[in-house]
């Protein structure tokens, strides 16, 4: 896949993004998704690798859906986040930051973060 093909792929709407854009209550679309994760306290979820990875997988690529808030959460795995275009408002361990095109964040296990 070349740069142009990747750019086109990443800019296409996913089914979840379409559902969110067409919904009168987009927040409800993503709240439904949270039901598959363990809630640690009133604000924080645990995203476990088994929700994303198949047995034997060592690494996966996952495209984050747009148009939604990712609630405070932590993982049992390391996450590398790359901003392909635009910007991303994040809160990492209570500190608000803005990441922009080309920025990379690496989240260690147990680092609580969220995305606006």
Automatic annotation (TrEMBL):
Domain annotation Cupin type-2: ranges: 71-115
One Pfam family cited in the UniProt record for this chain: Cupin_2
InterPro entries according to UniProt: Cupin_2, RmlC-like_jellyroll, RmlC_Cupin_sf
Protein name (record): AraC family ligand binding domain-containing protein
